[in-house]
Sequence to fold (136 residues):
Amino acid sequence: QYQILSDNLEVVLDQLRTFYKIGLLSNGNSKSQHKKFSSTGLIDKFDAVTISGDYGIDKPDSRIFDIACQNLGTNCNETIMVGDTFFTDISGALRAGLFPIWYCYDRKPVSEYKGVVIVHDMKELASYLLENREIV
Fold:
């Protein structure tokens, strides 16, 4: 399987790992999601990987965010969720008590939802997180 990664993803992950634990939370079938993730060659860039299919709970259910934070060794109220889908990622993160950042790469947010930071590319994400390390 071939995956298309965001520009500068690997560099940004390396930059952020200096200051943050990095986790992955993905909805989907356990086998296919693990295979897809492994094919990226980035598995060693993450401190924890949580696939919803391993637990039978999908985002936006707050329980999967709790599990992802437990896997990462953090509390929800001290964890940032960067997601590209507003309904599953951002609304779920808000309900679970995480700090949401909407990765809106197509530059067309459907909402300027109060309290949600919006970034449009990996460099913008890295700049925001490196400049605002005290947010969580």
